Each structure stands twice: as structure tokens, then as C-alpha cells.
Amino acid sequence: MQEYNVVEGLYYTKEHVWVKIEDDLATIGITDYGQHQLGDIVFVDLPEKDADVESGDVIASVESVKAVSEVYSPLTGKIIEVNEELNNDPGLINRDPYGDGWIAQIKMSDPTEIEDLMTDEDYKAYLEEIEKEEEEL
What we know:
Order of helices and strands: EEEHEEEEEHHEH
Oligomer: single chain
Strand content: 25-35%
Distance between the termini: 14 Å
Number of helices: 4
CATH class: Mainly Beta
Low-confidence stretches: none
Helix content: 10-25%
CATH architecture: Beta Barrel
CATH superfamily: RNA polymerase II/Efflux pump adaptor protein, barrel-sandwich hybrid domain
Number of domains: 1
Shape: globular
Largest sheet: 6 strands, antiparallel
Radius of gyration: 14 Å
Structural class: alpha+beta
Strand order of the largest sheet: 1-2-3-9-8-5
């Protein structure tokens, strides 16, 4: 089974988005597993700054040599910052998914939505389930 980097203290979604919470600000990006599945990322269609988003809305799309994948907002709120660096260097997501490869920051309007996200332990267990299912195919 391949080991993927899962950062402690972050929250995760089943769509392989990570969330870092600081007060009412959520920074989001694609997990290590997610970027591995995509392969080399060649383009990121970033969300609009100041856009209001609902949990589950498509806020970005990521194009790799393999496929185009949509990024869903894990939380409801307003996008207050986007990572413009990805316009020039989309590969940041591959090289540093939890650092320089972040996608957007959302000012949360409903912090209780965090309870719907997975903890790092939950996400590790989820990845193990995925790996087992793939081995059985």
C-alpha cells in the first residue's frame, strides 16, 4: 500500500480536499492522495475572489495530463483569497499540496460545518478503504 502524506490537525473531505482552520478562516487545497491520482497538474481554474460559496459548490477545476477534476468547497462562506501563484506554476499542487499549493481561503459563515469534515485519522482510514477496494479489483 502506498503511503500518502496526511497532515495532522487538518480536516478532509471524501473528494480529497484538505481544510486548515484558523479562527473563521479556512484555507483549502488538494490532498497528497488527490494530487497523486491526478498526475502532473498543468492548469488550475481558480475561484473568483469575493464570491459567495455554499458547501458542495464547485469552486475550481484542476487540469492534469490525465484528466480535469473539479474542486468542491467543503464549507459555506466568502472566498477572500486565491492562490494566484498557481496561474504561473500549477505544479505547486504536485510539489507542495499542503503548503504553497493551496487553492483558496474562505471566510466561513457557518463554522459548525467543520463537524461534517473528516479528521486526519478519519481520512487515513478512508484512504485505507480505497486502497483495499482497489486491490480487490
